[in-house]
C-alpha cells in the first residue's frame, strides 16, 4: 500500500518552469489575425502550483526567470495566486523566461512556445541549499525540468533530498519533444526518475516514450506501479484514464464538455488530484476530481486563471451529467 499520509500536511514543493502565456483576444481569434492579447501566468509547474493554492494548499515553487519585464510579470503573477517564490531566482544575461502564444480555439488550434535559452533551465542546487524539505508534504516535479542542465542535476538532487526527508515524490511526465535531443534520451531520464517516485502521472504518449514503444505505454505504467510499489495514472484523453495501484487497476471516464481550447488540462488534473489526496479523499475520488478540473479548465481562457477552487469544482461535478463510461 502506497503511504500518502504526508500529503495531509497540505504543503508542497514544486520544481519546474514558470512563464508568460499570451492568448489572442477575443477567444476564437487566430494568432495571425490578432490585434490584442490577454496575458497570464503559464508554465506547467507554475500552473500546478496555482491549482493547488486554489484548493487551499500551500505551494512553493523552485525555478528561475529572466531578470527583465517578463520575468517580473511572472513574479507578480505568482504573488497574485499566493504561490511561494522565495526560491524563484532572477537570472541576468541572455536567458529568457518561457513564452507561449496560445489560441483559445479547438479547430486548427495553434500553440507556439518559445524556449530558446530558457531561464528555468538555470536552476542550480545552491539555489535551494537552505530549503528544509521536511516541512513539506510532497515534492512535485515536471519532466521539462529534466531536459536541460543545470536544471536536471538540481532536480535529481531535489529528489535525493526529498527521499532522505521521507517525502512522497509526485512526477508529472510533461514530455515536450522540442526540449530533448531524442526520445531515447528522454526515455532513459524519465525512467530513472519514475522509478524513484511515489506517483507518476502521464498521458499515453508520455508513457509510450518511457516504454520506448508507443504501443506499450499502458503495459509500462502497470509494470512501473508493480515493480516500484507506486501509483501510475495513465491518461488517454477522451478515453479517460487507467490508474494502477497496489497491484490493481481502475478506469475513470471524463467529464464531457464543449472545450474552448485543448491546453491546461494536464496541469489542472495534477493540481486538483493532489489537493484531493491531501484532503484525505480516496484515490479513485481524487482521480475523478482531477478529471473534473481538466474539463473545467478547457472550457475557459488561460491556464492559471482558469483553475477552479474547491467550491467551483464541487459545483461543476454536482451540476454535470457525470463521468463518461470508462
Fold topology:
Blueprint: E1 11-15, E2 19-24, E3 37-42, H1 44-54, E4 58-66, H2 69-80, E5 84-91, E6 98-102, E7 111-114, E8 138-142, H3 151-164, E9 169-172, H4 183-194, E10 199-203, H5 204-211, H6 217-228, E11 231-235, E12 241-245, E13 248-252, H7 265-278, H8 283-298, H9 310-319
Parallel strand pairs: 1-4, 1-8, 2-6, 4-5, 8-9, 9-10, 10-11
Antiparallel strand pairs: 2-3, 6-7, 11-12, 12-13
Helix pairs in contact: 1-7, 5-6, 7-8
Structural features, described:
- This protein is of the alpha/beta class.
- It has a single domain (5-17, 44-64, 124-319), classed as Ribokinase (UDP-N-acetylmuramoyl-L-alanine:D-glutamate ligase).
- The protein contains nine helices and 13 strands.
- The chain has helices at residues 44-54, 69-80, 151-164, 183-194, 204-211, 217-228, 265-278, 283-298, 310-319, and strands at residues 11-15, 19-24, 37-42, 58-66, 84-91, 98-102, 111-114, 138-142, 169-172, 199-203, 231-235, 241-245, 248-252.
- The chain has a nine-stranded mixed sheet, with helices on both faces. A four-stranded mixed sheet has the order 3-2-6-7.
- α1 crosses α7, α5 (204-211) packs across α6 (217-228) and α7 packs antiparallel against α8.
- The radius of gyration is 18 Å and the shape is globular.
- The model has no long low-confidence stretch (mean pLDDT 96).
Amino acid at each position: 500500500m502506497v503511504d500518502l499520509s504526508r500529503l495531509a500536511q497540505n504543503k508542497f514543493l514544486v520544481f519546474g518552469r514558470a512563464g508568460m502565456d499570451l492568448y489572442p483576444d477575443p477567444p476564437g481569434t487566430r494568432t495571425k489575425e490578432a490585434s490584442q492579447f490577454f496575458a497570464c501566468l503559464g508554465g506547467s509547474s507554475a500552473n500546478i502550483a496555482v491549482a493547488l493554492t486554489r484548493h487551499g494548499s500551500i505551494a512553493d515553487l523552485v525555478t528561475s526567470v529572466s531578470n527583465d519585464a517578463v520575468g517580473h510579470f511572472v513574479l507578480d503573477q505568482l504573488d497574485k495566486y499566493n504561490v511561494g517564490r522565495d526560491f524563484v531566482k532572477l537570472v541576468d544575461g541572455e536567458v529568457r523566461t518561457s513564452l507561449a502564444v496560445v489560441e483559445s480555439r479547438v479547430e486548427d488550434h495553434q500553440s507556439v512556445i518559445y524556449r530558446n535559452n530558457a531561464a528555468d533551465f538555470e536552476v542550480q542546487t545552491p539555489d535551494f541549499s537552505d530549503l528544509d524539505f521536511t516541512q513539506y508534504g510532497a515534492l512535485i516535479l515536471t519532466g521539462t525540468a529534466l531536459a536541460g542542465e543545470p536544471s536536471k542535476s538540481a532536480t535529481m538532487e531535489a529528489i535525493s533530498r526529498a527521499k532522505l526527508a521521507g517525502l512522497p515524490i509526485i512526477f508529472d511526465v510533461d514530455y515536450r519533444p522540442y526540449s530533448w535531443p531524442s526520445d531515447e534520451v528522454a526515455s532513459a531520464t524519465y525512467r530513472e526518475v519514475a522509478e524513484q517516485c511515489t506517483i507518476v502521472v502521464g498521458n499515453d504518449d508520455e508513457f509510450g516514450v518511457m516504454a520506448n514503444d508507443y504501443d506499450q505505454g499502458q503495459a509500462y505504467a502497470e509494470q512501473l506501479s508493480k515493480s516500484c510499489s507506486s501509483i501510475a495514472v495513465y491518461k488517454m484523453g477522451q478515453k479517460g484514464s487507467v490508474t494502477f495501484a497496489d497491484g490493481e487497476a481502475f478506469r475513470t471516464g471524463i467529464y464531457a464538455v464543449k472545450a474552448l481550447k485543448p491546453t491546461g488540462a494536464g496541469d489542472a488534473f495534477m493540481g486538483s488530484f493532489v489537493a484531493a489526496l491531501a484532503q484525505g479523499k480516496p484515490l479513485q475520488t481524487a482521480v475523478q476530481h482531477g478529471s473534473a478540473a481538466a474539463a473545467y479548465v478547457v472550457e475557459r481562457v488561460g491556464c492559471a486563471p482558469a483553475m477552479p477552487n474547491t467550491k467551483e469544482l464541487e459545483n461543476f461535478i454536482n451540476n454535470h451529467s457525470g463521468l463518461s463510461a470508462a
